[in-house]
Amino acid sequence: MEQNAQTLGQEHEVFRMKIKTLIAQLYRENVKNDKGEILPQITLSEEWEYEGQEFNALTEQGLANIVDKKSDELFTWDDLETESLIEIMQILEDKEFANC
Prior knowledge:
The chain is of the alpha+beta class. It is 42% helix and 30% strand. Strands 1-2-3-4 form a four-stranded antiparallel sheet, with no helix packed on it. Strand 1 and strand 2 (53-59) form a beta hairpin. Helix 1 (2-30) packs parallel to helix 2. The termini are far apart. The model has no long low-confidence stretch (mean pLDDT 90).
């Protein structure tokens, strides 16, 4: 039984790594200016809540809150739960952001 739990834990970590790799790939593909350069951050079309905090932007590293053109709080992709990572992946796939 303990080996099953260990195997599932390892599979879960592999799955998370695959999602984070996809997020990085989607970010590089979809978050560009008109010159084709990757933007350091993007504003979400709708604010996104995680752990009781609202975020309005994504960076290559994670969730951010942009105030007066400065990146404030940040949750990295490693900080987020698997379900939230999947939602971020969908945001990037659907291009649900404002300044691209």
